[in-house]
Design a protein that fits this description.
alpha/beta, 183 residues, five-stranded parallel β-sheet
């Protein structure tokens, strides 16, 4: 877009910073052969900042509503970039393409399934749904680490029996499963 056209000879290398790519038009022009002695190669070397090793998506119910990503007071800070996705029930965990490619996927949901008295699913069907969600995520992002949060106890003894049973099923789900952990 600057109107400057640069010519390079055989064996030359042209480098450009990421910042300059926003201002300078670059590429291989039309009609340039991609085979034979005039063959050209383009390599893109990217540096990923160290703090992206902690990129995290938090999928959770109302217990996670005060968790804030970003920089500044009251946030997780720049060393844990990410986002929060609201899912009040296990079946509301979004499909992988809506979650995004994060290194860490934290799932903290399920208590609303336990508390529901209308059309309440069994704990076995809940864990089957959670297993399918984890399988879907790992099929799309095989290197992502899924961190499953155990359910928090409630004031109700009836609910706590259900919570304890589902927590045991979550523990069983993570046993011998690659890149799936308990938090």
């Amino acid at each position: 877009s600057s109107g400057i056209n640069a010519e390079y000879g055989d064996g030359s290398m042209y480098t450009m910073s990421r910042f300059s790519q926003d201002f300078w038009k670059h590429g291989i022009g039309e009609g340039v052969s991609s085979d034979g002695p005039n063959q050209r190669f383009s390599f893109a070397f990217r540096h990923i900042a160290q703090y992206f090793n902690n990129s995290t998506v938090l999928i959770g119910d109302s217990n996670t509503k005060y968790v804030k990503f970003g920089q500044g007071f009251g946030t997780l800070g720049k060393w844990t970039p990410g986002k929060r996705i609201e899912a009040f029930k296990v079946e509301e965990i979004p499909p992988p393409h809506k979650i995004g490619p994060f290194r860490n996927i934290v799932i903290h949901t399920g208590i609303n399934n336990i508390r529901s008295e209308v059309n309440r699913q069994s704990n076995r069907s809940l864990i089957d749904c959670l297993r399918r969600k984890c399988d879907d995520i790992h099929s799309c992002y095989p290197n992502a680490k899924i961190h499953l949060s155990l359910l928090l106890p409630t004031k109700s003894h009836l609910f706590n029996a259900r919570v304890s049973e589902l927590n045991n099923l979550i523990l069983d789900l993570t046993f011998n499963r690659k890149n799936t952990y308990i938090i």
